[in-house]
Amino acid sequence: MPDRSTKATMGAEDIHERKVSMEPRDSHQDAQPRGMFQNIKFFVLCHSILQLAQLMISGYLKSSISTVEKRFGLSSQTSGLLAAFNEVGNISLILFVSYFGSRVHRPRMIGCGAILVAVAGLLMALPHFISEPYRYDHSSPEDRSQDFEASLCLPTTMAPASALSNDSCSSRTETKHLTMVGIMFTAQTLLGIGGVPIQPFGISYIDDFAHHSNSPLYLGILFAITMMGPGLAYGLGSLMLRLYVDIDRMPEGGINLTTKDPRWVGAWWLGFLISAGLVVLAASPYFFFPREMPKEKYELHFRQKVLAGGASIGSKGEELSSQHEPLKKQAGLPQIAPDLTVVQFIKVFPRVLLRTLRHPIFLLVVLSQVCTSSMVAGTATFLPKFLERQFSITASFANLLLGCLTIPLAIVGIVVGGVLVKRLHLSPMQCSALCLLGSLLCLLLSLPLFFIGCSTHHIAGITQDLGAQPGPSLFPGCSEPCSCQSDDFNPVCDTSAYVEYTTPCHAGCTGRVVQEALDKSQVFYTNCSCVAGNGTISAGSCESACSRLVLPFILLISLGAAVASITHTPSFMLILRGVKKEDKTLAVGMQFMLLRVLAWMPSPVIHGSAIDTTCVHWALTCGRRAVCRYYDHDLLRNRFIGLQFFFKSGSLVCFALVLAILRQQSREASTKATVKSSDLQEL
């Protein structure tokens, strides 16, 4: 029998022969083109499209928030809560998804989440199909000829009766209203739940199976395409809101509204159907991707030179981390490994959480990001409505301004911030200085916004303007003989005196004339007893005297957004470089959790509540306050911009404290180094 050395030699030769025989087979396999669903590049393309469609469907509600308010009689506080409610579903499951992420079939989970997002989009559009057609006045639905007579000055005996009695109002209408609102809140919750696995599973899947040198490029492409989602959502809203809400069930004879009429309601529901269809198409490939695909073995050729230069950047980053390592508080807690059991995870989590929260840099940077995110959430939700009210522009044009100017400049700001950090090799102290400078410039750009706008024009019976000439005060009781419904809304404008009336009836008008033009018709009301000389007034609200100021206003807003976005990457680097290496994953997760809980959830509600406090005339539905019809423009501007100014100031203060702490730590480190060198010299 052969001895052990012979066996070892034979075994080594067998292994060597086996390796040699396998090498050409592997190279032959690598030479063969992989299937489409075995290619990480195709996964990056699919995931970019999916996240783009997901952000479109989640951002579309913000583009049509004022339209949804008018259609269903919601206050700004309620609509703000609706816009923020998707965060409830997201927060409720994010920890479970993060924990079980490596134990499930990630592509299929992404596909299931995307299907749930699409279902949520369909649910958001459902209230349109189960509700009655939109009626923009309180006339009898059986007789369209009363649409105009209901708003004119008629004797009490000739006035049309209200379409709904108090009994039907309290039972049928209120039940339907609560049902519609409940459906939309349920849809927003499902939207948040469905979006939970999409981004974290997709990023981890790309990072696991892409070449380590290609992964940053793929993630950069993913984020670049994804950032276009909100802009496309506002663009889609701009297109859809030009169409009438009941375009699928237009009344006989058409409608007599234009997009500039305050009673106009656009096809808000159509954008949800389009976005949901895109999400379904983008989700289809995920059910064909494998649970694990072969890891990418080759680096992209055009990246080699870039990585050669980037090696110095990576080494510099390591040096910066090692320099600041003595400044971190050492602790002997174990690293949270992905193979921990649930019980072990629960035991370790509180200690690591407390250690991370006690880190002053982490806490201050997250608080500054909370302030910035609160500003962004409020702006994204209510800036279109603010522009509509303040400058008398259409909802479509307001969305167009945000989608084509504000959001692209914000994206440019994020890119510029990342380029500055990379090219200049910024240290943590320099990152904090850049963040402080960006916050300061953003704050300064918001100061002129307090003065760009106009006061509310004179609205008869609602606002009192001493300069209004003439008004109902000059003609007391001019509309008393008319049987005007208090909650009717068909605004007309006396252009000569710049006075608006809620209906022709309240202006004492008894006649109506339509002037036909080439492409549109203009409606005038005649014999108005509340107008000087029983004159004629035009249909529609009075135009704002400062409509021309909307472009300077939105330009300042966009520049402020771009400057604030520059701080995005530097502040993120402060978090990554400021915590222990084993706590980075937890720190990033806590960062996003705190941003959702402290910013994205409460901020739309806070902004909506502030907007509601500036309302001077509410529409009433079944005895309850519904949508606001008129605002105090000066108060609205001061409170909306004031909230923005408050959050920007909070971010500035936090970054100033971060810079002060880093400077103090740098002084202490240099002092210790000097003491050590002097001690060595003495020895």
Could you characterize the architecture of this molecule?
The chain has 683 residues and is mainly alpha-helical. A hairpin with a 2-residue loop joins strand 7 and strand 8. Helix 3 packs across helix 4 and helix 15 packs antiparallel against helix 16. It is globular. A six-stranded mixed beta sheet has the order 1-3-2-6-5-4, with no helix packed on it. The chain has a two-stranded antiparallel ribbon with strand order 7-8.
Terminal Cα span? 67 Å
Low-confidence stretches: 1-10, 12-33, 138-148, 156-168, 302-338, 465-474
Strand order of the largest sheet: 1-3-2-6-5-4
State the total count of DSSP E strands.
8
Structure keywords:
22 helices, transmembrane helix, 6% strand, disordered N terminus, two-stranded antiparallel sheet, 8 strands, six-stranded mixed β-sheet
Lay out the secondary structure.
Blueprint: H1 4-31, H2 40-63, H3 65-72, H4 76-84, H5 86-99, H6 106-130, H7 146-149, H8 166-194, H9 198-209, H10 215-226, H11 228-240, H12 268-283, H13 304-324, H14 342-357, H15 360-391, H16 395-423, H17 428-446, E1 458-459, E2 492-494, E3 499-501, E4 511-516, E5 521-526, E6 537-539, H18 550-566, H19 568-578, H20 584-600, H21 602-612, E7 615-621, E8 624-631, H22 633-682
Helix pairs in contact: 2-9, 2-10, 2-11, 2-12, 3-4, 4-21, 5-8, 6-8, 6-9, 6-12, 11-12, 11-16, 15-16, 15-19, 15-20, 15-21, 15-22, 16-18, 17-18, 17-19, 17-22
InterPro entries: Kazal_dom, MFS_trans_sf, OATP
Region (Disordered): 1-30
Membrane topology: Multi-pass membrane protein
